[in-house]
Here is the input.
Amino acid sequence: MSLKLFITGTDTGIGKTYISIGLLNAFQQLGYSTIGFKPIAAGAVKKNNILCNQDAIDLNTASSIKLDYHHTNPIVFEPFISPNIAATQAGVKLSLNELISKSQHTINYPCDILLTEGAGGWLQPLNESEALMDFVSYHQMKIILVVGIRLGCINHALLTYQSIKQTHLPIVGWLANCFEINELEPAGVINTLQQWLEVPYLGMVPHQKKPEEYLQMNQLLHQCSITG
Here is the structure.
């Protein structure tokens, strides 16, 4: 049975894919087979007449098990906007049941680590009453919170953490991604978050450095009850 991890973040554009690729690399270095999965995405271009999201392509490239694109990213929209808005513009009704159905092949594919990357932040809507977090809850995935270190991220991180906590889903840890080179006090921000976030700290990735070289994988493996 696969270890199912869900990567969420404090916002869009804070490095979820970058960190996810680092995690895939780190797991593979430890000998685990991996699949990177992007169940829903918005922001795509046509390649060989197939609408493709670059994040999903990058996740599949970094995986040890390569799946066909429509299994890596079963729901994709062209505009780079919130997926629920893109669906409305396309005349499509997103639903949790549809997302579950279109994800079954990948969710059930044999591998050691199934790493699923979210779209946007934790409370990304699918429609007026369902959200992507309902998909995470349905599959009882373990959650990693990526905090993009920038002005305002403390509030975003604490709000996201509190929202996840209310679902009673397991949060195996959080990590800091220093994706903005001009952040003035990353150490102070990280120290504050360590005091307030009641889950393990999995490391800090410096600006433009390889995440797999900085992630505290022993801590993560311990939290996931697997051995390295």
